[in-house]
Every structure is written in structure tokens, then in C-alpha cells.
User: Fold this.
Amino acid sequence: MTIREMAEQREEAFLSPYASLSKNSKGRDIPEEPCDIRPVYQRDRDRILHCKSFRRLKHKTQVFLSPQGDHYRDRLTHTLEVSQIARTIAQALRLNESLTEAIAMGHDLGHTPFGHAGERVLDRVCPDGFVHCEQSIRVVELLEKKGKGLNLTWEVRDGILNHRSEGTPATLEGKVVRLSDKIAYINHDIDDAERAGILKEEDIPLQYRRILGSTIKDRLNTLIHDIVSSSMDRPDIIQSPEVAQAMTDMRKFMFWNVYTNPVAKGEEIKAEKVVESLYYYYEEHLEDLPAEYQQMVTQQGESISRVVCDYISGMTDQYAMTKYTEYFIPKAWQF
Assistant:
């Protein structure tokens, strides 16, 4: 018996009857020989962790564009916080931690430079639209490994695709990540906003603090415990009505006081101009795309607009600004 098979037996003996067992996965689009050590979801987690798109997240905006400070979140630290929260909940509910972690690690791989500002621009200018969760699927199915993709299991891809509020994940592990994403960004965005001096704890309405807590630690504790107690031994991942409403109201408060705050978002108009200019430039200059992207158009029949979105969405903030400078900022004449 292999180490993987023993791990699968432990899952069957210990995990909740509502958990997703590795041995019951719907599998991969391209069949592979099983690993002798790792069950399928652990293998997926490792593939995501080692891919280039994951590494680029450390240079992509979460909320604050190019913040002057070492402690503001970026897209990578957000991803790690989502993963930590999701694993805590999954462990308490005896769900599959490897599947939960793989979904969490991959949920934002398709995010644009400059956060949601970049996403809004690509959604506006691309004829087919642009949604970062759908782009994350293109990353793992097509764009990584020079067009080969990561060949992840169906359950991981389903969780990545459905992690937004409107999504309906097919597994409880996917539902855990969907809620953990909100818990993470609401709380760490409060922390970053306080660090930036645009929000104070006492600015948060008292009715929300009474329910959720008056510190980051207390709010995380409340939200995580509420999901665990509300979902224990049930075939769903839910919150109590009171806590769910408080979290929804807190998100609305953050939208009006942070996500649209001119101090936090004052540079977004410039960032949007960078992304929009790059999109129209590459649409007219396909030859300036890397060869593998040109081949997606000329040999694989992908539309120019979609491939341009693929390339731009993969950029880090700094790389996008570098390419914008290269194409649109005059250089000093040299002789």
C-alpha cells in the first residue's frame, strides 16, 4: 500500500461525511498516474504554490496602490490570509484541508495589476468582458506552463471559479473559501485603512462592533466561530443570521469609507489609464506580445482581445507601469 493510499484511508476514517474525499474526486481533464505520496488535492495545492502566477501575486495591489510602508497587504498576503482562515474552519469541521487550501491558494491567480481598478478596465474594454475568477480558471487550465496548464482536479477548479459572492461552489470546501475570502479582506482592509490614517476603530458603527467585536482579533474570532458552530454536522456552510447581516453591513461600510475613499483610491484613475492604454496598444501591436501569446491567436484561434487580456492581467503593477513607460513616455534623445 502506498503512502497516498494510507492517507486516503485516514481521510475516509476521520473526515466528516460531508467532506470531499480525495479518492472520490471527479479527476482531471487529462488523466495522470496517481502520485505514490500525495492525494490529488495536496498535489493540486503544490502545483499552485510552485506556479509563476502565484509568485506574481506578491507584486499586485490588494487595496492600496504602491503603499509607502512594508505592512500593507498585497494580493499574495491576502491569499495567504484567506488560506489560513479557510484551513482553520475546514479543520474544525473535519473537511478536506488540502482541497480547501488548494482553492484558497488559486482563487486570485487571474487577478489584474492594480486590483479591482484593473479588472474594471479590462471588463469595460474587452468585448467578451473580464472577471478575475474566470481568468483564474484560464490561468490554471491554459496559460500556466506555456499553454499546458496545471491540469487541476475538477473540485479545485470549481472552487476557484465560484469563490465570489454570486458563486455556488459544489463542495463544502469551496463554500468555506468563499466566506473566508470575505472575512479576510474585510478585516485586513480595516487594518490597512487604520494604518493609512483614513479610518479609526471608533469610526466603525457601534452596532457592528457589538456583534462582531472591536478589534481585528475579536472580529476574526467571532466570524470563524460563528461559521463553525452554525455549520457543524450540517451539509452546508452557513452563518447565523445576526452575524451574516453584520458582516454584510460592515462590507457596505467599508465600500463607502475605504473602497471609494479618495485617499485610498486617488491614484486609481492613473492606474486605469495605464491598463486601458496597454490594452489598446497591444490590440494594435500583436507583434509586441511574447511569442506564446501571438501563437494563441495565429495557431489556436483565440481572439486578439482575449489574449491581450490574458497578457495584461498577468502583469504585476510595476511591470505594467514599465511597459506603459516604454510605449508612451518619450525617452531622452541620445547620440
User: Anything to note?
Assistant: The mean pLDDT is 94. Residues 41-265 form a domain with the Hypothetical protein af1432 fold (CATH 1.10.3210.10). The chain has 17 helices and no strands.
